[in-house]
């Protein structure tokens, strides 16, 4: 019972949440349920990913619908305040004061996250900067740091205070492959016992990290399930050939010189195992709307693909 | 080609920039408020002064242009896109040129606003004089200079502080000019004249408008070249041009301060002492009005006052003909001891031009404190002339109007038009112990003590026709300065203040 | 708990304080105010009032940048209230600006003849400076709303120069910037007090943290 309660308390739930920017609808009656672990949020530019993350992070409020985050209602002042003590947020293109050192900024964020004890703050700052690999650069001014380092400063700020809920908007932008690998290890570790929601364009990150993936498009949820289920959407629709297939929905050259094609395979084509990227591209294509019964709630499953 | 395309895009953005739009809206709002509060009939524009007023109000769009172009030229830096600019095919100096070109449309807007404003002033029925094209062009050039300054600043620092602070610096220059700080009058964008100085005929004005325009153009050129040089334009021709323009700015800046030319000084002195030689006259009823040619239309306004006064005087007492002559007194309005006007020269001038005892009127006229004061002053002098009769030809000998005579003269003057009545009320609010009405801000003045002013203000609240009838029926008593104020008030149907007689003790009136 | 946090926050907020505007907004008004003393000029009350008004415009300039925060988005979801942070930041700029203004007032007063000093109404002129500062803060708060909390100075910096200029050019300038103890002096103090009250009320509303939906993209000008 206690673990169920704890599990329930760590869920993120959205019920018919809608957000509009003037005439433009950014989120269209989105309903989601997230548990512990790492959830990836995929979608094309303008799909509503950042809006969704900002809404969950209490950076903005929805126009319609209800939310429950860690058992709290972020739409009430008390709920919002309580939630902010338990979450960490990394925005897209995090703004940083250029004349602060990395350590100064993390200390500043530590104060804002109500770590009042100076020694505790100092310890926490060193810890998070070590987690993101910036121990050697913590005394450098932010304007002297590279883009990838600044991204890591933002990430360090997000994990100050060991939050239960981490919301990361495109956290791997600017990171080199080694740093991305390190990031995956960090997030994988954080995902154990916490709820992490990250948006990314990198399907490899989703494959490596996420136990659940949500695909957003035009403000609606087109898919929610495991990465494997997303990949299965493309089963039987991906084949390899020596040249680009004219009728394919998408085709690109692979690293080994062949072409990977998605669509209706020609007769005699050699099918290959689909990846998450294949499933994602097929999902966003015009004929695969992932909606079996036309009710707009994105309930496409592998059975639909069959 | 791409620089031209960029110039078109930046020009459109410059006109739509919030700083410029807000500045133009404020300009329009202030103009609308001015027009609404004064009304058409409340304006008496002198166009050779209105032309330079357009420059001061254009400081608002100039500020908007400076901030707008500065923000446009630092846009890439502020939004972190500077690395993108460093590898563009279009070199920085050409992009700077495009930004500089974008300073032109706001200047054109300023030109349209100037045209609209001077047209508005010129079409007022009471407008006199003619504007100077050079003064009218100066305002838009200031807007152009401000826009170029914004771009030049951007090439020296991308700081968001620079633009607004440059505005404060320019504001300080204008304020120094307005305060009359030594040597600062023409350094800034606008050369501010004293608003207390009376208007002058265009031919007697001394404003180095053309030199100042050349100075502003040279400074603009300097700013343009500095911006281009900082952007990597070819150094040799740009530097040579920069040196030339700096020299031009220095020379024209210095020439602006050349003293009043001798011939102009002589013309001014002659116009002051012998105005009749330069004036034209117009006869209306019993009154001959003489004015400098460009002010002759003011005769209609003066006539309203004289008719208003003569209409309340018994026919038998209207011992005309009367004359009104416009005069200048250039030493008037200065700080310190008031100077004495050339009364004898004026009297001789009047005799020579067959307008003996002509009442003086100045070039100022209006419903504000200064113009209203001049309006009332003239009305009082004319009323005093009418009440005095033919024996008072030449300069008035007394500086104080006493008792019943003071009440009569002041009432005749104040009731002449609604504006003269307002002018008396306004002057009374600003005065203590009575009112003093100077002749062209000189030492010559007519004063009326407070009790008589109180009586006149009470009379203004009563029907004018009724008071006028009472005046006519008791004219001899009411024009005699031996008749007490108390008795005058009774004759006119009001009560005098309790201290009416005591107030004249210790004044010139006590001796009469 | 907020007490120790606030104390710990002050050094960081000081670091966030815009230095160039602060430096300019301190040096230039002091230079204006010290000039008459340096030139051994005896100021008339009207001239002293005018220079103090000029100094007020210069002293208020840094206030336009007080609320700028490049890390606004990154720190948007922390538990420490944004309103308290903003008020602290305002205090860290407004207090030095007020001290600069006061120093200018004392310098200009010192440049007046002792018998004339009583004719310089410092409380009345302080009211004007406070109203101007509050209007600038209001513009900054509006600018923050438009820029997602990052750059209030985008609106406030141009506004802090356009507003006094517009007032100085307006037909009502003699009523607003009345001659000390002149005909319209007392009426103009009521005008300034009303403007200050209205600006303060609006600012109090706008500075409240309302996570109202803003487009995450800042306005580009």
TrEMBL record, chain A:
Gene3D superfamilies: P-loop containing nucleotide triphosphate hydrolases (3.40.50.300)
Biased composition (Basic and acidic residues): 289-306
SMART domains reported in the protein's UniProt record: AAA (SM00382)
GO MF annotations in UniProt: ATP binding
Record Pfam families: ABC_tran
Domain ABC transporter: 12-243
Region (Disordered): 287-306
Keywords of this entry: ATP-binding, Nucleotide-binding, Transport
Similarity section: Belongs to the ABC transporter superfamily.
Name of the protein in question: ABC transporter ATP-binding protein
Source organism of the structure: Streptomyces lanatus
Classification of source organism: Bacteria, Bacillati, Actinomycetota, Actinomycetes, Kitasatosporales
TrEMBL record, chain B:
Membrane-spanning intervals of the chain: 53-73, 100-122, 134-153, 165-184, 209-229, 236-257
Swiss-Prot/TrEMBL keywords: Membrane, Transmembrane, Transmembrane helix
Protein name stated in the entry: ABC transporter permease
Species the sequence originates in: Streptomyces lanatus
